[in-house]
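Check out a protein:
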Amino acid sequence: MQLQAFVALLSLLGAANANPERHARLAKRQNAGAVVTVGSSSTSSISLSSGTPTTSFTSSTASALGSPVPTTPVGTTIPPLVNITSGMATPSTVPLSATYSAGATPLISGAPVLPTPFVFQAADWPPQDQIAPTDSDEVSEWMEELNGFNIPDITPTVDGTCVNDPAAAAEAASRGWWTCGGYTRVTDITACPNKLTWGVSFDDGPGFYSMELLDYLASKNMTSTFFVIGSRIVERPQVLVEEYMSGHEIAVHTWSHRPLTMLTTAQVVAELGWARKAIKDVIGVTPTLMRPPYGDIDDRVRAISLAMGMVPVIWTSTGTGATFDTNDWKVPGGVVTGPQSFATFEAILTNATTLNTGFVVLEHDLYAQTVDLAIGYTLPAAMNFTPTLTLDSIGHCNGIPSTNLYRESNQNTSFPYPNSTSGDTSVPSGSGGKGSTSATSGTLSNAIMPISMVVASLLAAGGSLLM
């Protein structure tokens, strides 16, 4: 896809003024807001030396499902930072704070009502946490979504790492391989366009401790983007429902969390397709954003993702190669400690002040340690940071209308692509779908540039492109 084509795609995203939709979203949300701008006259009030967070909240005291209330409610007391380690005691989980019946109306204008509550039947799904097989009727249908798209003939990597595939690593620039060299394309979302805006997101859930995070975000009138895994969705579907119905953005993070560049094209399709199907079966909508596990993406994986109607989202990197990864995911495994992860985050905030754009940070909601770090330390640190930061979800900070984040409510026939979806009659067909012979204009652009830079340059040229 050439840059000119992507510019045309962006120009169709919506009206120039973001305020009407922003105000509507704020008005419709009861306990969760679209944007929160925070700051103080001093730097972060959380320090490594104190090991004590400045914020706490009371978790839900009951569940509409009748789940038992934890004897020691999670979230009322965050462990001292030095105690957030791989060996920390496992806290009780927070019950759902609300339940939603089939037919409930989501906050997204034009989105279908919630479907019948999801019931997991193992025979209908791939084995959990294993690479999704490719010999099913579903994958055969999803493979047809690639028709009419130019999928680069790039050999899969050995295991998604640079050290074990030096030959692929030597070709990283031409492959557009993010893992080895941080290469991105104009079709990747890697930041928020506005300086000092943090695109907040959490990966790998829905987790046992996601409700604790949801309660905290609601208490701060804040929304986030959740990149969810299919194998976790089928375990905890009601948590996904609560995330979606609370106004958070939902995006794809594959079925089994494998490095995508190591997979065959059919396997990539299966990984994305099964995760997408799990989301659709649970909340009734099909996301248009995805994040590759480990950030492992190249031009082949990008093309597959875009052909399936999903825009890749990666976390920010600086020009010196530093990535905005908190390493919180390494704490449960004992690779780093809580204090080390938080020190990394403090460095991220410092680096963020040097950027001309906003930024996206990698955090997770799968483990107790990562959730405690978020609600006890990283989020409060950002909310008390000087200069003032704006915390927002990734789609919204990039001006993408909430309706465009899901195919069923998407009002833009060119975002992300007018593609058909696996025989789903609720989604219009178009170029690149089943039976289509049209093609995109060439291969992915070789320009190595984050989407935020494209947006900034287009805005400078005159006219607001994005909602």
User: Anything to note?
Assistant: The two ends are 23 Å apart (CA to CA). The beta strands are 35-38, 197-203, 225-228, 249-252, 289-290, 311-312, 359-360, 389-393. DSSP finds 14 helices and eight strands in the chain. The first helix runs from residue 3 to 11.
